[in-house]
Amino acid sequence: MTPPSGLCIINNCCLPRDLNPANHQSQYQTYNIHYSALGEREPLPLSLGTQCWTAACFLLLDDTSSALSHCEKALRIGRAIGDRTDEPNVVINLGRIQAELRQWQIALDLLDEAAAMAVVGEARRAEAEAMMHRAALTQRRGEEDPRYLGQAELSRHEALKLAEEIGALPLCEQLHRKSAEAAEAVGNHAKAASHWAAISAIRNRS
């Protein structure tokens, strides 16, 4: 997705170019509410993009209720106009919302659904993102129940393999970082070091 005018991408989220959400959260939220209201009066194709990006913004603010509302609007608009290009990304966000609500199985099912949708062309990045978020969700479960840690590692490995295959270097870096942090958490410093080295190599290639 291309962010609407006046917005930029930071950490896979759509942010106003002139605001830092860490320092101006109330202004940031007001901006997004205003931007969302504009979307209601836009032509449907433009409103679809607005709803997708506004949902991502509210996810960044941990406002799952607003994010869910905008995801649902995006799905309705996309299906109404026959444009399902962004649907995998919307379903990924729905999975992330359910994870925040600790609805683990629903979240996993949504992320698997998003990955299954995104199997060709540019959509393969969404497939890798869905797999990355699935790994993150499983890691969170593993922090409560160590039986899930092995699944989390396998999911990260599969996501990383796909990200490397399609040349999605930012995703590769994120996945190596998550793998390094997970390895450090269990005291496997040698494995962590290999992932940090991989991050350095990616940055040298960028």
Structural class: mainly alpha
Strand content: under 5%
Number of helices: 9
Low-confidence stretches: 1-42
End-to-end Cα distance, whole Å, is 21 Å
Largest beta sheet: strand ordering: 1-2
Net shape:
globular
How does this model look, in words?
This protein is mostly helical and 206 residues long. The chain has a domain at 1-83. The protein has nine helices and two strands; from the N terminus they run ββααααααααα. It has helices at residues 25-39, 44-60, 64-81, 87-100, 104-117, 123-144, 149-165, 169-185, 189-205; strands at 7-10, 13-16. It has a two-stranded antiparallel sheet with strand order 1-2. α3 runs antiparallel to α4 (87-100). The longest helix has 22 residues, at 123-144.
Spell out the blueprint of helices and strands:
Elements: E1 7-10, E2 13-16, H1 25-39, H2 44-60, H3 64-81, H4 87-100, H5 104-117, H6 123-144, H7 149-165, H8 169-185, H9 189-205
Antiparallel strand pairs: 1-2
Question: Which key phrases capture this entry?
Answer:
206 residues; mainly alpha; 2 strands; disordered N terminus
Put the structure in a nutshell.
The chain is mostly helical.
